[in-house]
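Protein modeling request. Please complete all fields; requests missing the sequence field cannot be processed.
Requester role: graduate student
Desired output: 3D structure, token encoding
Chains: 1
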Amino acid sequence: MSLEQLKATVLEQCLPLLATKPSDQSVELGAMSAPAHRVETVDGLRAYHVEFTFRRLLAATPALISAVEAVAKLPSRTRRREVREERELVGALHVPLYTRRRLEGNTRRSFPVLVSRVVHDTPENRLTLGLIRSVCRVLRAHPFPRSTAEAALSGTHSAKLERLSGYAAFRDVNVAGVRARDISSTRYRVARRLTANDVAYQGILRWFDEWVALSPGLTSDTSTLVDLMLPASNTYWEKVFEVWSLQMVRETLTHAGWVGPTDWSLNTRGSPRPVATVRRSDREVAVYFQTQLPLGQGEWAHDTGKRLRGIPDLTLTSGDLSPMLIDAKWRYQTGDRTPSEEQYKMLGYAENFRNAFDASGFNGVLIFPADRRDTGHLSRGESGQLTTLRTDLSLVDVRRELNVAIDYWLDPPQSVNADVSPDT
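Delivered output (424 residues):
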């Protein structure tokens, strides 16, 4: 599997959780193609349904803005006949109205004159303005925290659309949203080339159709791709893989019979609470994402007195057991090379936070994307071990190996000496 195939696979597998992760305000966002797969309601992740739709809209709005700008350059128009009162008979007299007045004895010293005025109140312009106003309402109701890149982009898109709605093309139009009769009339007029700017209005119809086709952003056809607005930098894939590891832990625990909340959301980052707490029989496991909290303070300190920090991707805790750490590294592994540098970094947690691991030793898992599947273990003859998992992202293999590592952490095998009676 190539690196690009790995990217597509890891994005698809962790998308439900990834969509709930807002970005820092300084992060540059870009459109990325992703499968428009369904997440069943029973599976929870309600925030995913909402945020998937908003990320789709953030990615799709620039195309709508371009289509509206093309319409505004050459808007369709029509003539509207109106009655105007003139003191001199200049133009076509509105004969029925004039006659009725005379019969009623009206002595008004003016003539009702028919005039024709060019206006832009056409079905296609009503559809365009209705679409602008509908999308603006959705953008203003975004679910992202205020100080995030997603919230800022929602505001930018909304402001651009509001500015476009004030163009001359829409001054004669008064609609609050999209109306069915405007859609059908626009299709009819565009098909018969009656708008004088058919290409631009075709763009409006195309955008509308593509958006409505996947209205909530969900479909059972996983081959369908839609654009989502996600961070565009290369380092983003580090974050994607970290979230992917959390999704794998979630699936592993669920398949192993652990029961807990189905709605795992990453919006709680920085919170002292775990992402989720699951239970099986009389045992409980709490899952923390990117926080040092369960480890306590580090043993090593700078010369300024500040303690050396360490934030693993995932930390699992259970009762009086030492925490279990899981770190996902977006370092593509090929051949038989051993990632010893990352293993040393992982064992650095065992040294710096050794008080946290006194109870049952150090247990950790390193996960790497690779061109193969293999698993290795490091230990030093006592309870605890470091598992290195290299995977081509096969879900079954990853879940199996994570389940083995979690079971070893929860119920470590007894040492040989502990099984031998002192009398033998």
